[in-house]
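User: Show me a protein chain along with its predicted structure.
Assistant: Here is one chain, sequence first, then structure tokens.
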Amino acid sequence: MAEVAKCLHGSPLEAAVEIGADLTVVGPEAPLVSGIADEFRAHGLKIVGPSSAAARLEGSKIFAKDFLMQNRIPTADFATAATPVEAHLLLERFGYPVVLKADGLAAGKGVVIAQDRAQAEAALANFEGPVVIEEFLRGEEVSFIALCDGKTALPLAPTQDHKAVFDGDRGPNTGGMGAYCDSGILSDAQAEDILSRIIRPTVEATGFTGFLYAGLMMTAAGPKVLEFNVRLGDPETQPLMHRLASDFATVLAAAASGELSSVKLEWRPGPSVCVVLASAGYPGAYATGKPIDGIQEAEALGATVFHAGTRRGPSGFETAGGRVLGVTAAGDNLPTAIDRTYAALRAIHFEGMHFRTDIGWRGLKRCRESAQRMLP
């Protein structure tokens, strides 16, 4: 970040006042749930982000599920338990696989898909506090993000995240091992259905401002909400920003001023792909301080390398987190974007580095199936 901006420390509110910030945009979920947007607005400062009340859509899985049910927004059938012990009694209600969710913030990792009772009981043994037990939905997962100003919802291009740590969607959930952005993920009719049945009712009921992220499953019965986030997703943001052609600062300022109704986003036509390079052991325990080589070489190949868990060490960049880098590239079509991204990331190395090799392949499969349907 220091290569493109001045990094400030201490209280965000004090920093905004000190530099006379025209606009503040909040990235992580925890300060939104804690009420940073309310604090800024109380001081007359423009900010992009929901109120603490609306941020409960991400801050509490139970609140979000109850909200969906009360507002007749499609989602998976569910039950809630006050403790993991109580959750044991509800396991057989939905059959297997079954989805278990910790109630509070869990940095994208508080969800377990248990294939049988033994896995479910093992997962619950690691949970604390209230739990959501949820029907397992089948279909294709889509991340649908809209920028909102309390009245208007401006949809961003659709993206698809890859949560599981290993190829083929195997292994435990992570904060995201990669994503791609491609207008072909959804048809215009599907996008409008999501807006009319999910996004706009949520904005109307909450007066939502900021980024409303709906993690969806496109089922045979239509889109259903898996989860809400109240921020831009990671790693979805990387391919989104890579494709966006509009001046985003102007768009964000319009959102903070309640003036999104006349805004139209422009997108570059080709898809973009982001692959996350992770530390050995992630999403479990991992070591840090591993020197990173090849970032400049990757960028020379046309990629943008987003830093997620790095720091400057004595000899350059070194690892400082579980998800270390997000290598992102675009192309005229999805196969080209995938090839460019993987060609660039192979220039990078740090000890224990691992990544998925199949980011975007679900999109390739969809393209092939579509082409086959068009054959005479």
